[in-house]
Amino acid sequence: MDMRQLRYFVQIVESGSLAKASRQLFIAQPALSKHMAHLEEEIGKALLVRSSRGVVPTNNGVALYHHAKFMLRQLEQAVAVARQETASLSGRVSIGLAPTTACQVGLPLLEHLKAKFPGVQLNVIEGLSGHLEYMTSVGQLDLAILFGPNAASDMDVEPLLEEEMFVVLAANSELVEPEREALTLREAAQLPLILPSLRHGLRRRRIELEFERAGLPLDAVAELDSLPLLMTCVERGLGATIQPRAALHVLGNQPERWRCLHIADVEVKRPNYLYALPPTKLSPCTAAVRDELHVVVRQLVESGDWQGVTLPAEALAA
Q: Which of 172, 186, 179 minimizes the C-alpha distance to 258?
């Protein structure tokens, strides 16, 4: 079976007759019939019912028709992207990023796209994960990085990376002895923690969950849903927080300002998933941004600019 046979089959179904299809495909009708006979023989099922009034697909033929249409669209899009001149690729692409993700990957992605696809206008929407999930589910975003695999049933989703959560303090903080590199979850619970509110997915799905599992109280001294304000309070010594290392970039790329302590007895990790429109709705411009996002993320991780992150096995093997 090859793509040519599938293209012939789709045209026959849509034309309703071999004669009409042969004229559309510029192929002799006997040759077209031979191709369909070979296709049916290879599949082992009848695909077309022939009569004096034309042809109609069998139930198996209907199933093949829908899958073949999908495959042919994908092939056409792949060819279009491959033929597109880099400089001529243009359009607007919207991507939703949570605050921690935006401050880590937002600028590198914009710089990368400006150099490679100057005609692409990237619209970055920063918001809490719950709001981004809503925007994704109602089709307001072309792409999004979210923290659960079931945010939008009609979009394609794939694992992007996994982030470790750290206890974060100011570099000069006296809350934890300077020689310590890790804390237990119980020790973290005894710190004056500054955290997002329960409206925030990071608090609700990751931090709160692990403390409940360990039977530990979680009493934040302040609840702040502004990441810049939260990290400023931590830097000023008002407390500690629990965040991925990406949060360190919100006040500038100065890692020496911070201490990041592992949580020794519990793995607190946050999976990141990349959502994209399905192939039938994915423009060449959006497909290019999606692919380049993978490139940028891998470069950040491999260069050490994005620490505390694990890439999926398939990304590491690429």
A: 172
C-alpha separations of 36 from 24, 58, 100 in Å:
16, 13, 55
Residue whose C-alpha is closest to residue 200's, from 235, 242, 139 = 242
In contact, 127 and 100? CB cutoff 8 Å: no
Task: Give the pLDDT confidence score for residue 84 in this predicted structure.
Answer: 63
Mention every residue, 6+ apart, whose C-beta is less than 8 A from residue 225.
128, 196, 197, 199, 200
Task: Indicate the CATH number for domain 3-83.
Answer: 1.10.10.10
Q: Which one, of 146, 173, 174, lies nearest residue 161 by Cα?
A: 146
**Alpha helix ranges (H) inside the chain:** 3-15, 18-25, 29-43, 59-83, 99-101, 107-116, 129-137, 185-189, 201, 208-213, 227-235, 284-303, 313-317
Q: Where are the domains of the chain?
A: 3-83, 88-161+271-317, 164-269
Cα–Cα dist 154/277, whole Å = 8
Coil vs helix vs strand at 8: helix
CB 183 within 8 A of CB 240: no
Per-residue model confidence as pLDDT tens digits over 88-128: 788 889 999 999 999 999 999 999 999 999 989 999 999 98
Q: What are the helix and strand counts (H, E) for the chain?
A: 13, 13
DSSP 308: S
CB-based burial label for 7 (10 Å; 0-12, 13-18, 19+)? middle
CATH number of 164-269: 3.40.190.10
CATH class of 88-161+271-317: alpha beta
What's the pTM? 0.70
Same fold, 3-83 and 164-269: no
